[in-house]
Amino acid sequence: MANSSLISALSVLPPPPRYPTQAAYNAAVGAGHIPPMIETNNILSNPEDQFLVGEGTYVLKEDLHLATPPPHPSEAPILNPNPLATNPQPATAGTRLSLLNLDARPAAFQYRGMSVTSLGHASIQEHPNEDNSRDPTLSGSEGRANSSDAPVSLGSAPAFGEGTALLAAQNPKDASKRKKPKNNMTKSNSSFISRVIVHETLSKRMQERPSDGLYVFANINRAFQWLDLSASNKADYMTKILFTKAHCLCHDVNQVTRSANHIDVIMGFSTGEIIWWEATSQRYARLNKNGVINGTPVAQIKWIPGSENLFLAAHMDGSLVVYDKEKEDAIFSPEQEGKDDGDAEATNGANGAGSSKNGIQVHKSVNSKNQKFNPVAAWKLSNQRINAFAFSPDNRHLAVVSEDGSLRIIDYLKEQLLDHFYSYYGGLICVCWSPDGKYVLTGGQDDLISIWHVPGSTLIARCQGHHSWVTSVAFDPWRCDDKNYRFGSVGEDRRLCLWDFSVGMLHRPRGGAGAGAASVRQRGSIASRLTASQLTRAETQGTAASRMRSNSAVSGDEEDGFTGPHPVEPRANTAILPPVLTKVVDADPLCWLEFTHEAIMTSCKSVAGIDYLVHPQILVLTALVQSIALTANAIHQGSVEESVRADQIIPVVVLSEDEINAGPENLWDTLHYLVDHDDVCTDEFTGIIVVKPSTSGAASREVLDNYTSDSYLDRFSSIYHMAGGHVSSQEEPKEMPSGPYFLSGPNLHQAWRLYPDDLEAFTFGLLPDDLYDPQRFQAVTSQSSDGFSKTIPVPSRFYHFPSPDKPLAGARISLKDTFDTEGAKTTLSSRAWTELYPAANASAAYVRKLLDLGAVIVGKTKTSQFATGKEWVDVQSPVNPRGDRYQESSGSSTGAAASLAGYEWLDYAVGGDSAGSIGESAAYHGLHAIRPTLGSASLEGVRVNSPRYDTVGLFGRNLKDLVHVAKHSLDVPNGDIAPPRRIIYPTDFFPLPDPNHQKLVEEFVEKLEGHLGAPQIKVSLAQLWQDKPPSGSSTAGESLQDYMKKAPFWSLCCEYYHASDQFRSDYHDEFGREPFVEATPTFYWGIGANVTEDEYDIYVNQMETFRTWFDGTVMPLSHEQSVDAVMALPCGPEGPNYRDALPDEPTVLEGIDSKLLPPILGAPHVVVPWSDLALLRLAGETLRTAGWHTEVDTGRFTFPVGNNSRHVKDDGDGSDQGAGRVEPHASGVMGSVVEGISDEL
Description:
Among the domains are: 205 residues, Methylamine Dehydrogenase, Chain H (7 Propeller), CATH 2.130.10; 187 residues, YVTN repeat-like/Quinoprotein amine dehydrogenase (Methylamine Dehydrogenase, Chain H, 7 Propeller), CATH 2.130.10; 113 residues, no CATH class; 206 residues, no CATH class. The N terminus and C terminus are likely disordered. α16 runs parallel beside α17 and α22 crosses α25. The chain is of the alpha+beta class. The radius of gyration is 37 Å and the shape is elongated. The strands form ten sheets. Strands 7, 38, 39, 40, 41, 42, 43, 44, 45, 46, 47 and 50 form a twelve-stranded mixed beta sheet that branches. It has a twelve-stranded mixed beta sheet with strand order 49-48-52-51-53-55-54-59-60-58-56-57, sandwiched between helices. It has a five-stranded mixed beta sheet with strand order 4-5-1-37-36, with no helix packed on it. The two termini are 67 Å apart. Belongs to the WD repeat creC family. Interacts with creB. One of its GO terms (cellular component) is nucleus. Keywords: Repeat, WD repeat.
């Protein structure tokens, strides 16, 4: 099997500033020197991946992440339709690449012009001076703009503008004498160019590179890079250019003038300006300066085939403009001949096609006598943006696609529109020609690739395989011949698709219109794909095929006139082509594709891939703040208003003068520390520094004295120094924590990162109105950038630091959606409840306590409906992140558990418990949890089902951290209490049906025995009840289960039903009907409604009798200085339960089980995946003594997988993590539940 290579995902990421090597850094520091630092580095990695296609295996060879600069301070803001979400990255067309091979190699397929047979014409010579010779210096199939090493014939096309003397270029035979631009880019003082970084050994690298090596040129928003893929270090750029404001959206390399000492590159910018850059000499010239010819952005730019000087630019106003690199610009207005072509809008409406006899508006013809200045030619095609164009392999025609969904085929030599097609729907984004020029591919917003047969002037197939917009298409010329074609596509769905087609393999959908006509024609012929009407048009009516190859002597009015666009082909009339391969090859949307002889190359759009929210509260009004804007040449004093507009949002980092004065080396360490220890701060924030004033408030100009060398000034776009200003918050600027912020005009704002809630765990995120007194909140309803999930805002870790008064400062906590938060609704996962009641006017008492302790409430997590439902009708059930993510999320606190089990950025989750929800949710999601002693936390402001049973619950991934939050937020003793003297092992609940689960429980109890030195005592509660019945009560010899048959469940249902009396009444009064309630809560309400007051009193008395008996006979429930005993209880399901199974119908719970026992007793109940504070600490000490984990991971696996009976790689264990790899279900690593009496050990 033949092997090929795949180089994919040439991605754009925000790279950290890095030192060339660790050794160089260490050596410089050791010698007392400043270590050399590269401003931003490309990163080359070698991930392992592959895929199989018919011709062999493609191996993911290399992944090169190209560094992208942060936005310039003066850049215009990027408008986001989401009013809360703000993305600081600038607009970009993604990463676009050009490939250049100075050593032309032959391709497997070479175009030699269309045959007489395929055209049905006697001759293809349209011009008397045409010949079929091939220019051997050219490389690059114009089926793709950048095919570097797939040479094709120029066919018989004359040069563009041939016959116009003013366009005749003086082409020296000696490449060294070619004309170069005037200006030296490395010494330029132009405000358009920010900086040019040339590799110090550029000349040497160019001389030593192999002749068949591949150059890569890449535009990445404000940056442009030139790289050498034949170098040992591909990530080390040869030249990097940073532009001040303009974004380079496209570029092209001239394949005619290329040589070892001359490389002409043109670049198109978001400002409409164009740069001609000669790479080897680092010289450049600006064209269309300040938009003098056309001020709209350049969507695509290409050298005209065969020309040394002329290139074509597609501007976003729907214009195509031809420029000469060596001509000066002049103010341009359409010439008179262009005006005669008529009004575009009058003829074709929004499409903006011209009404001239040629089908386009010719604002300036290439045949114009006025060729002293640019433009050489200008054509208007549409009033909507042109997205892409491609030259045909015979270099005669142009395929143009635009936002209005049009594909236009143009004879650009004659300046005539030949054909006009439309997409299935939406705009077209990309286009290319087949190597033989017979077919055109387009891709766009309809998620389809369309194959157009140009000679037949028809659509022959649509290709379905992408799940989002198609952004780039290309043929693989090494896998194309006269009958079979291979092409590829990439899209915003991150997929690479490969496609094979031949005309004979295309089949119309069954029952499609015209199928009968197609079936009678010769199989495999082009005609077999066309309907009768299409065949008539193609063969007898002089369609685009005949127009494109008509004799040039024939009048265009008679035979070349454009007859109007084709209607959209119905799906039933069009063959559907599936891909031969579809594979996600990147984590970000793809935007570029290219085939080389050895590889497939792709690039992506992403810049940083992080969404942010700018908190609206102004922290500092910096009206008097002075800025010190740094350039490589000088330090410039000026006000912040001079460089930052009020509508801009700029990421900055705030540092103290002490941190700045510590010296350059320490400053870099500080910036690295900020990025490495905070998930909000990225390198994009560190390009601009805001310096907090000293305690005296005096401006310290000397702060910058250590940074006067170019190597340090280049690191930052600017530094703003707070010399004074009015503070709108409670804190002075000097007291603001160092860290990431957003500068909006003269105002500083906190930066909050928006995390996508892809587990559907949250009802919504929460954002405090006041950062310094977070009492009132607003719900955050913004969507993630992919549009598939809501987002949850979290602040920087550096905004909060724990103190004795605020021990939970900065702890990110989620709340079960039964807790009120002022300003936000409590929904209970019920649409009826949500539409009835307004936002809460006060936060729950426990929420206020958390806020007073410094906690950050990030959002409210989903609860089952009214904390008992199972059907999830009004909202979608949270996703359990454990295992394959299709296991059941159980318990009313399932949203809280799922959020903590799945999101590393979350620290704790708060739930609630009536009858075992905390234990059940913890067991299913592999977490530590505590259901504390009844009454240890206030339930004011919490939607309570039963005051006799309900309590707050806490989830944690780490036992030590769980002890920390419980100690400070719960009203429990925190003194020294003696450890338990007994371990109660209730045989009523053991052994478990699952032997593996039972074995885990036994192992844990053994470890607990060894740690405490306390005996395990096996007790049957039922037998003990018979042997020692409650004294002074009339149990009448009833068994424990008979006596407690109804009491727990019926009393709970009664309290649950009457807790909702007000809701049902209010809803009926408001809407005149009963509210919708799911089946499970309806079932419980039905039981509760039938419990009389007398029956309820009996049930309560029975439970008090049981509790008193348990306290005196089994183990004490009260404690002062010691804990008499702990009880082990089973927890979690017996095996994996999958969410696609129908929920069990609600049933009556009778008697006492392990789930109901802690709520009945009001005792603390702690779940450990492997009880009040004492049991948490006891569990942690036991696990540590055993060498077992006390911390669980997020995501698929609760613990690292190891090769032992528990399939867990223990702390310090040498077991092979990869051996015997088991994917446990959610509770497969649950050990036990320990129930205890004490809140402290």
